[in-house]
Write a structure and sequence with these properties.
- The complex is a heterodimer of chains A (371) and B (78).
- Chain A has 371 residues and is an alpha/beta fold.
- Chain A has a domain of 156 residues: 3-Layer(aba) Sandwich (Rossmann fold), CATH 3.40.50.
- Chain A is built from ten helices and 15 strands.
- The longest helix of chain A is centred in the first third of the chain and has 22 residues.
- Chain A starts with a helix and ends in a 15-residue tail after the last strand.
- Chain B has one domain: Non-ribosomal Peptide Synthetase Peptidyl Carrier Protein, Chain A.
- The radius of gyration of chain B is 11 Å and the shape is globular.
- The chains are: A alpha/beta (371), B mainly alpha (78).
- Chains A and B meet through helix 5, helix 6 and strand 6 of A and helix 2 and helix 3 of B.
- Chain A: One of its GO terms (biological process) is bioluminescence.
- Chain A: One of its GO terms (molecular function) is long-chain fatty acid--protein ligase activity.
- Chain A: This is Phenylacetate-coenzyme A ligase PaaK-like adenylate-forming protein.
- Chain A: Keywords: Ligase.
Amino acid sequence: MMIGEMSEEKGKIDMDYEMILARKPYSLCRAEKRELFGDWLTELTEYHRQHCPPYEKLLKALEIPSGRSMEEEDIPMLPIGLFKSMELMSVHPGHIFKTMTSSGTKGQEVSKVFLDTDTARYQQLALAGIGEDFFGDQRLPLLVIDSPDVLKDRKMFSARGAGILGFSIFSSHICYALTSDMELDTEAVEGFLKRYKDTRVLVFGFTYIIWKYFYEALAIQGKKLELDNAVLVHGGGWKKLISQSVSSDEFKKRIYSVTGISRIHNYYGMAEQTGCIYMECPCGNLHASVYSDIITRRAADFTPCEYGEKGIIQILSPLPRSYPGHSILTEDEGIIIGEDDCLCGRLGKYFKVTGRIKHAPVRGCSDTYEG
Amino acid sequence: MTNLEKYDQLFIKDLRVKKEDLEDLKYRGISTWDSMGHMDLVTDLEEVFDIHFNTADVMNFSSYEKGKEVMKKYGVMI
């Protein structure tokens, strides 16, 4: 390839990123999105082939021909477990700006996700776009239901740390609700509540941590916080709560009982595709934004499911450029309910996550805490 | 202290850089100006200059020079 051609190619892809990042996050209808994602992910598959030798080898072994124009459904997908067993990157190691890890449970291997400055920027802008759609563009005081220790290691972020940092762009003042020992920091929380008594605030944390170290601590102490003005955003998976038979409705009810928070949004997302999270709308559905898409597949033959049919979740996003994570088969199951016609008005697919696939190694997305 | 001096001082403190490196400094250009360094810097600028950035401007604050433009939007001439 000539140098001129190469810069032209890079120029076009860069333009695509700027175009999509400048768009409103729920503004692409099905036809537009299919065309954009088919072309873009085809190009990205070629790009990663050329820049990530292990990826090229994998596609060769799977006999996936190069240079073919693909629809979204045809884009080869990597099983999410591969990010644990292999170090996959499409840039020179010297250009890695941050390495992100999924926090696996003890004794398990963690995924490693390698970010250069471009990919880190795309992810942050995507999250900012999604957050703005849900909470507006004024940054709110943020109560993080976690310990500040999560951010101790700056070079290697866990998914938990990355989530907190990601959400801190929506916040003006951060208060950590838990101490290093994961105890409720009553003094800090009360100070925060007093200071922002009549202000809208954001509360963020991982589902299991909120439940175990915030909700249970408050419930045991018989305490009720005045957080009626707050919006709670939580993510990181349900599996630990499902094993304790806590449903989404139960979670909302109990959180309300100790805090008065009625606006509660769950989100679905993972370290392997950071930024483009799937937020739960007021109708209770998770939404794919313009920065990513989902497909559900049948376990028997991996063909795409119909809407309403439960299947294994595949996530696709053009944002991962420094590593071949643009098409990943997760270990979660879900149901796509529809596209472009959720009552909340957001365009794009909307869905529910129903749980983990059978036999998948139990993995902490970000909800794991060894304690 | 002038606004420029205050502005420079916060960069030097939060991003642990030297004065002579300031001019070419870009967000994610050095390891200390990562998202964590960025949030420290933004918080300190807001406090010292008594302003409040919106989310878009936190993202627009992408370099030492670009930051001056963002500050101007909030009525702070650097």
